[in-house]
Amino acid sequence: MRGSCTHKPTSSRLTARAVATISTGAALISGRTTMPTEISRQFRFEAAHRLPNVPPDHKCARLHGHSFQITIVVGGDVHPEQGWIIDFAKIDEAWAPLHEVLDHRYLNDIEGLENPTSEILARWIWERISIPDATLRSVVVHETCNAAAHYRPDAP
User: Fold this and answer.
1) Residues 5, 7, 104, 111: which is the catalytic one?
2) Total number of domains in the chain
3) CA–CA distance, 10 with 68 (Å, rounded to integer)
4) In sequence order, which residues have a C-beta less than 8 Å from that of residue 19 and are 6 or more positions away?
5) Percent of the chain with pLDDT over 90
6) I need a surface site. Which of 15, 63, 77, 142 has the fewest CB within 10 A?
7) Is 7 an annotated catalytic residue?
8) Is 124 helix (H, G, I), strand (E, B) or coil?
9) How far apart are CA 41 and CA 85, in angstroms?
10) Is 38 an active-site residue?
């Protein structure tokens, strides 16, 4: 299953073109036969942590928790017959072992997360997730609804 949410395009013309493009077996975008695309999958986990390297009076020095939201972004060419880069289930499978390590844990106790900032957590996930048949593009860690760290090793 590709996902439970459905995207409703703003134009039925766009939908018809997309269907025609996929059904022909070639992505006809700007005269090319490839269709480089990115997809993403979001996950959640609950965890506690404290930041040991901030001043003692900083609020993050105290034990606290977050409902972390993780976004895994992968890229590649859309397969001309399948119409996708990879099945979203492959991303789910790659995330599952990391979820087991992180969910309802004290992050400071996990090797490599002794100073578990969102930036370090994003890199930690990047270094441990492996998604066959796609290229990992970025890992985003939201520690709150309006604060996130984006990890892309190739970014300037």
Assistant:
1) 104
2) 1
3) 31
4) none
5) 71
6) 63
7) no
8) helix
9) 13
10) no
The torsion angles phi and psi of 99, rounded to 5 degrees, stand at -60, -40
Domain-located, residue 21: yes
Q: Give the domain CATH number at 46.
A: 3.30.479.10
Instruction: Give a three-class secondary structure readout of 61-100.
Output: HCCEEEEEEEEEEEEEECCCCCCCCCCHHHHHHHHHHHHH
- pLDDT tens digits along 8-22: 333 333 333 343 344
CB-based contacts of 97, cutoff 8 Å, min separation 6: none
Rounded to a whole number, what is the distance in angstroms from the first to the last CA of the chain? 35
Helix (H) or strand (E) holding 139: strand 135-144
Catalytic residue among 60, 66, 81, 127, which? 60
In which band, very low, low, confident or very high, does the pLDDT at 32 lie, cut at 50, 70 and 90?
low
Task: Examine the residue annotation and report whether 127 is marked as an active-site residue of this protein.
Answer: no
Amino acid at 122: A
Q: SS3 for 125?
A: helix
Quote the domain boundaries for residue 68. Answer: 12-151
69-78 pLDDT, tens digit per residue, is 999 999 999 9
Residue 58 lies in a domain: yes
Cα separation of 112 and 124, whole Å? 7
Considering the entire predicted model, what is its pTM? 0.79
User: Catalytic pick from 49, 66, 142, 143?
Assistant: 143
